[in-house]
């Protein structure tokens, strides 16, 4: 009976894995086939032109703008997220305070992205008079991905063998030295992985950009106080125009999916190599 259950579990796992991989491949193939005519070197390297958005030119300013929004969000959300995870795991000695931290993190993770966009528009764009710019969007996106990075970082720190940390303490090393010279180097691969995956999450967010810093037409941004184009907003605007822009919309979607997929593959390889190097 136990053997039959084991075989059933393995079969279920194989079928589920095959189904997931099949859906992902089907999605990429479908988007690529529908947008293949639009995906050219000029499409990736030129700015959009024409009276109707997306009918001429390309999406280079949207790619550059997305990287600007994402990079700032990772910086603004990743630093406090990793710092919070370090405090909870290695410094916090109060169970009540730890529960409070986790409650706050869960509450932030439950806020819809469009609400974060509305908050950033009301407080940053209007009250602080930052205007529609990369900085306003970066703050909103940073808040959005902070819980994602914090949970992953905390999990990474807790999975580090306790013997490594206790051995450092036993040798007389301070907690600060242990964290800076042992914990962070050992967890570097997973931490960078969490930051990049959080950035991929931010790159696909449209709602905060609509209110805060995304625009239909703009060049490559020159400062944090400039508005910028972004791939998800550009895709939304193309779809809103109707069937005349579907070809360009599929091309934009494929480029964005390809960037996220390549980022995930590279970060997985880096995390695996980093972990193997540390274990060796």
Summarize the structure.
The protein has 280 residues and is mainly alpha-helical. The protein is built from 11 helices and 2 strands, in the order H-H-E-E-H-H-H-H-H-H-H-H-H.
What features would you describe in this structure?
- It is built from eleven helices and two strands, in the order ααββααααααααα.
- With 280 residues, it is mostly helical.
- The chain has a two-stranded antiparallel sheet with strand order 1-2.
- Strand 1 (48-49) and strand 2 form a beta hairpin.
- Helix 5 (113-127) packs across helix 6.
- The mean pLDDT is 87.
- How much helical structure, as a percent, in the residues? over 70%
Order of adjacent strands in the largest pleated sheet: 1-2
Q: Low-confidence parts, pLDDT < 50 over ≥5 residues?
A: none
Q: Roughly how many Å apart are the termini?
A: 40 Å
**Strand tally, please?**
2
Beta-strand share of residues: under 5%
Count of alpha and pi helical runs:
11
Order of helices and strands: HHEEHHHHHHHHH
Query: In one word, what is the shape?
Result: globular
Walk me through the topology.
Blueprint: H1 2-35, H2 41-45, E1 48-49, E2 56-57, H3 60-91, H4 95-109, H5 113-127, H6 134-159, H7 162-170, H8 175-203, H9 207-212, H10 231-240, H11 246-279
Antiparallel strand pairs: 1-2
Helix pairs in contact: 1-11, 3-6, 3-8, 4-6, 5-6, 6-8, 7-8, 8-11, 10-11
From the structure above, extract its key features.
280 residues, mainly alpha, two-stranded antiparallel sheet, 11 helices, 2 strands, globular
């Amino acid at each position: 009976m136990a053997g039959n259950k084991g075989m059933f579990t393995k079969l279920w796992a194989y079928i589920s894995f095959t189904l997931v991989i099949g859906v992902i491949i089907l999605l990429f193939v479908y988007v690529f086939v529908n947008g293949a005519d639009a995906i050219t070197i000029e499409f990736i390297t030129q700015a959009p032109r024409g009276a109707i958005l997306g009918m001429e030119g390309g999406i280079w300013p949207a790619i550059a703008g997305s990287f600007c929004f994402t990079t700032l969000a990772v910086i603004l959300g990743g630093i406090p997220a990793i710092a919070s995870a370090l405090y909870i795991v290695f410094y916090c000695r109060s169970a009540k305070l730890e529960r409070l931290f986790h409650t706050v993190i869960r509450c932030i993770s439950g806020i819809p992205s469009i609400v974060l966009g509305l908050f950033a528009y009301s407080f940053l764009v209007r009250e602080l008079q930052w205007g529609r710019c990369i900085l306003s969007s970066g703050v909103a996106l940073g808040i959005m991905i902070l819980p994602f990075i914090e949970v992953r970082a905390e999990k990474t720190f807790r999975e580090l063998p306790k013997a490594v940390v206790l051995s450092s303490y036993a040798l007389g090393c301070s907690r600060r030295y242990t964290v800076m010279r042992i914990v962070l180097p050992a967890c570097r691969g997973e931490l960078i992985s969490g930051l990049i995956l959080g950035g991929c999450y931010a790159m696909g967010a449209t709602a905060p950009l609509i209110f805060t810093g995304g625009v239909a037409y703009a060049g490559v941004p020159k400062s944090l106080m400039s508005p910028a184009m972004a791939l998800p907003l550009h895709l939304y605007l193309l779809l809103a125009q109707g069937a005349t822009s579907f070809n360009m919309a599929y091309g934009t979607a494929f480029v964005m999916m390809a960037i996220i997929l390549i980022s995930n593959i590279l970060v997985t390889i880096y995390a695996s190599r980093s972990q193997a190097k540390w274990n060796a």
